[in-house]
Write a structure and sequence with these properties.
The termini are far apart. The protein is elongated, with a radius of gyration of 27 Å. It contains 21 helices and 18 strands. The strands form four sheets. Strands 1, 4, 5, 6, 7, 8, 9 and 10 form an eight-stranded mixed β-sheet that branches. The relative contact order is 0.08. By secondary structure, it is α/β, with parallel strands linked by helices.
């Protein structure tokens, strides 16, 4: 009374499932320079750690007598594994089976993958290629009727943004629902020259009269500039390493504290070069990334979204081993001022920090001004970014390096909270920059003056004197002015002082993709 025959049949089906779309499709995938889905899982996860769920999902082929003749697996694989010893949920599209498009199984497997991550508190990694669960015209023929569109698992996709870290890797052409799943993540990565992302692919776009290649329509350079993808790497291996690095800064689920690693950098390290890094002439920029590398744990800065809203730098990093979020101006692009794009980038990043309880270190100069800024609706996007900052409850530290003007300058923090706020002697702040502020404030006086230019220069000189940062400190309108070389020890103190505030009873509910 043995089940030997059934177990042998089970092993046969599982072996057939590992053939994926068959030799011809696998060869085509390899010729395109892309790994197949099981090679990707082997590359991403710790060796031997993957435990597949739904390995028998697919379609069996039978002969006229009903005997088993073959098996075609579903084009979605999911399960659990480990990344550097850390349990994760992973769901992957198999492009060799119907180009990763929808079938009877892919929908349910995606739903279960999302549920597993959210309910078990596991970081979720999506390996996306194809439509990733979206329908096709052929689906109508298969079903015998058209249908009102719906997005499978979308309730879980949205819910997971507030529950667990989600990483999406676009590893080939990604369209429709696949593209929507890719961008609905905390970190979206592409592969240069290999992956493209679009709402609808070139054949569909040709139907509206636009004839373009996949790369022209949705290549990585285009999507990085649009802010749809956060980063792009030269190979699938590099993209997966970036995903591992990103996850290392975050906890398994919202409400938990992210792991501190053993510090390898002196928390009291000072850098005397910082005393000279900011030019005295305010018309010239400086290297903010050099400042970050000098003040944060060496080798820990992980910048995200470098090619979108590039007047602002958003990065994950560490201080004395503690993970933090960094929001800094880039004075070499628009003087570091917020554009409409930068404001959108800030909203998403602050929501990330709030959801996963990462303390924030910030430097904010102000809004970009001019007709281009007005046409882009900068004030509306900027006001939403202000709201995200004022809604945040994570520990917040402001370090004013140089400029802080007007409404956006006030976005350095919610001023009603305890102000852990410091400035370098190079700090320059106020309601408006002196260059345009004098003309605006004294317009009528200047119009009546015998020598408007002389009076203007006299007023500027008086304002420069009153704008001395030490005068602000005398009024306690800035909490402290510090030696730039001492920035790292002070930030390290902030990271250690706020360590106990890295957890909370209820997870965040504000994350917006």
């Amino acid at each position: 009374m043995s089940w030997k025959d059934e177990i042998a049949h089970l092993r046969k089906r599982q072996a057939l499932a590992h053939n994926m779309g068959g030799a011809e499709k696998l060869a085509r995938q390899k010729a395109a320079g892309r790994l197949n889905v099981r090679e990707r899982l082997d590359l991403l996860l710790d060796p031997g750690s993957f435990r597949e769920i739904g390995s028998l999902t697919g379609k069996a082929r039978t002969n006229a007598e009903g005997g088993f003749e073959g098996f075609s697996p579903a084009n979605c694989i999911f399960g659990r594994g480990t990344v550097r010893g850390r349990p994760v949920a992973v769901v992957a599209d198999d492009f060799t089976v119907r180009g990763g498009a929808a079938d009877a199984a892919i929908v349910e497997k995606q739903v279960e993958a999302e549920k597993m991550a959210g309910e078990l508190g596991l970081p979720l990694i999506r390996l996306i290629e194809g439509t990733g669960g979206g329908g096709s015209v052929k689906s109508i023929l298969d079903m015998g009727a058209s249908y009102v569109p719906f997005n499978p698992a979308w309730d879980q996709v949205v819910a997971n943004l507030e529950r667990v870290p989600v990483v999406s890797l676009a590893l080939g052409p990604v369209a429709g629902l696949g593209a929507a799943r890719a961008v609905s993540s905390h970190y979206c990565v592409m592969v240069k020259g290999q992956s493209q992302m679009f709402i609808a692919g070139p054949p569909v776009v040709a139907g509206v009269g636009e004839h373009v290649t996949k790369e022209e329509l949705g290549g990585s350079d285009l999507q990085l500039a649009a802010g749809a993808a956060d980063d792009a790497y030269a190979s699938e291996a590099d993209a997966m390493e970036a995903a591992r690095w990103f996850l290392s800064y975050l906890p398994d689920m919202a409400g938990d504290a992210a792991d501190r690693i053993k510090p390898s950098d002196d928390p009291a390290r000072i850098d005397e070069s910082l005393r000279e890094i900011v030019p005295r002439d305010k018309r010239f920029g400086y290297d903010m990334r050099a400042i970050l590398n000098a003040t944060l744990d060496q080798g820990s800065v992980f910048e995200m979204g470098r090619h979108f809203g590039s007047s602002v730098i958003t990065a994950l990093a560490r201080l004395d081993g503690w993970p933090i979020a960094v929001l800094a101006s880039n004075p070499n692009v628009y003087g570091g001022g917020w554009t409409a794009e930068a404001a959108q980038k800030i909203i998403r990043f602050v929501d990330l920090a709030e959801t996963f309880r990462l303390p924030v270190v910030v430097d904010v100069p102000g809004f970009v001004i001019g007709t281009r800024a007005e046409r882009a609706g900068t004030i509306r996007h900027g006001a939403r970014a202000l709201s995200a900052i004022y809604q945040a409850s994570v520990p917040w530290c402001t370090m004013l390096i140089r400029k802080a003007y007007g409404v956006a300058g006030a976005a350095m923090m919610d001023h009603t909270r305890f102000r852990y706020r410091y400035a370098w002697p190079s700090g320059d702040w106020g309601s408006l920059p002196l260059e345009g502020g004098v003309e605006a404030a004294f317009k009528s006086v200047l119009e009546k003056a015998e020598d408007p230019e002389a009076l203007k220069e006299e007023l500027r000189a008086r304002m420069r004197d009153l704008s001395d940062p030490f005068k602000t400190a005398e009024r306690f309108w800035i909490e402290e002015i510090i030696d730039p070389a001492d920035t790292r020890p002070l930030l390290t103190e902030f990271a250690n002082l706020t360590a106990k505030l890295r957890t909370r009873d209820t997870p965040g509910t504000r994350y917006r993709p």
